[in-house]
Amino acid sequence: MAGTKPHLNLAVIGHIDHGKSTLVGRLMFETGAVPAHIIEQYRKEAEAKGKATFEFAWVMDSLKEERERGITIDIAHRRFDTDKYYFTIVDCPGHRDFVKNMITGASQADAAILVVAAPDGIMQQTKEHVFLARTLGIGQLIVAINKMDAVNYDQKRFEQVKADVTNLLKTVGFKPDTIPFIPLSAFKGDNIAKHSENTKWYTGYTLLEALNNLKEPEKPINLPMRTPVQDVYTISGIGVVPVGRVETGIMKKGDKVIFRPSIDGVGATGEVKSIEMHHEEIPQALPGDNIGFNVRGVDKNAIRRGDVCGPVDKQPTVAQEFKAQIVVLQHPSAISAGYTPVFHCHTAQVACTITQILAKLDAKTGSVKEQNPAFIKAGDAAIVMVRPTRPMAIEKVKEIPQLGRFAIRDMGQTIAAGVVMDITPR
Q: Are β-strands 140-146 and 181-183 bridged in parallel, bridged antiparallel, or unpaired?
């Protein structure tokens, strides 16, 4: 049962057409999450449309438009179980326009499968996705070298692609010797659930074995408690009930808490009277728990979505300004000092001004390319100073990573993603 198995969020990343959707469809089929007759129905439909190898991909791409274009658009959340874990797949599109979805997908993933097609090897988006995965804090990786059937299961080709990917991973700080590289064919099913006769030369893990070997993410219970507010309700006979997900620490009944920045920018304090999860009262809440909690002494109009609840003695940080490392994913022109897009961090959405561009970085290695550049554009990584236009609770990524990552949006698209390096508190 889901209740007893540990849960992991899994991102599937890599270049367009390298077989991510097919791999996800195959995983769901092999673990029994999608019955065989459904796959068969998709196969007939795919053949009728002249796309004979798309049946597994279609498990994920249930949107009609995606079927006709043959590419993945939205992040589809899907679940499958191995004997050890239950996984939610955050399917991260490889197509350029859809990198924004990848940010929201990858920033909540505990691990990722990087899919690289054996015939092509590393492509531009392979590099971007690896760098993003690192920036967004994904620590565990499995490399699936896919489409081995298209290179006749050639060991030399596998070793070549493995060597190239190893070098790429080293440049961004992953440790390749801790990462499994698996030759597979998502379409044919080689080395997914069992070892393939076609790759007798390969003795490592199958994909399902590698997934079972992932480490369960440690619940950050030793960090100060941080619960970003998603909504605030007033329930008659109970009082003010904020709702949110505990990101770090432990919330207990009787805790003295403060919401910051709150409407007045100073903070609203109160006491936790009760905590509910799935309509049951619980004595304490841990990281990952989605809860409603009743707070005594706080006025409903004092707090709102985007505030962060924390202990009075270790309060959430409210930034006057902060220093951040960002990766610019897309922008029609260039970004210079004075640009004021909306920063999305935990549940907060606050317009912030980039006041200074301190340095431009090499997007593959993170080393400084240029000091104080006049502007940055799509593809650049940079260190910037940021000033929120109103009080905003945010933390240093090194101290409380869950509240130290953000996406930058403007004109209906995600412009950049980044992490907070340093904060000048209010």
A: parallel
The HSE-up count of residue 333 (CA atoms within 13 Å, CB side) is 5
Q: How far apart are CA 324 and CA 327, in angstroms?
A: 10
Give me 417's structure tokens: 């993603």
Residue 260, both tokens = 């910051």
DSSP string, 317-356: PEEEEEEEEEEE---SS-B-TT---EEEETTEEEEEEEEE
Sign, CA dihedral 56-117-14-90, equals: positive
pLDDT digits (tens, 9 = 90+) for 31-54: 877 766 766 776 677 677 766 555
Burial 34-65 (b: 16+ CB within 10 A, else e): beeeebeebbeebeeeeeeebbbbbbbbeeee
Q: What is the DSSP letter of 251?
A: E
**Structure confidence at residue 363 (pLDDT):** 61
Residue of 238, 346, 219, 344 lying closest to 292 (CA atoms): 238
230 touches 245 (CB < 8 A)? yes
Cα separation, 156 vs 179, whole angstroms: 19
Contacts of 27 (CB under 8 A, 6+ apart): 33, 80, 89, 192, 207, 208
CA-wise closest residue to 136 among 168, 164, 172, 170:
172
Q: What SS3 class is residue 16?
A: coil
- Residues 244-255 as b or e (16 or more Cβ within 10 Å = b): bbbbbbbbebeb
Residue 311's beta-bridge partner residues?
257
User: pLDDT tens digit string along 349-361?
Assistant: 899 999 999 999 8
Say how far apart CA 380 and CA 327 lie, in whole Å. 6
Give me the residues paired with residue 252 across strands: 284
Please state, in angstroms and rounded to a whole number, the distance separating the CA atoms of residues 23 and 214.
Answer: 18
- Neighbour order of strands in the sheet with 111-117: 77-81, 86-91, 7-14, 111-117, 140-146, 181-183
pLDDT at 242 exceeding the cut of 70:
yes
- Check the CA dihedral 34-35-41-44 and report its sign: positive
CA–CA distance, 35 with 57 (Å, rounded to integer): 14
pTM: 0.65
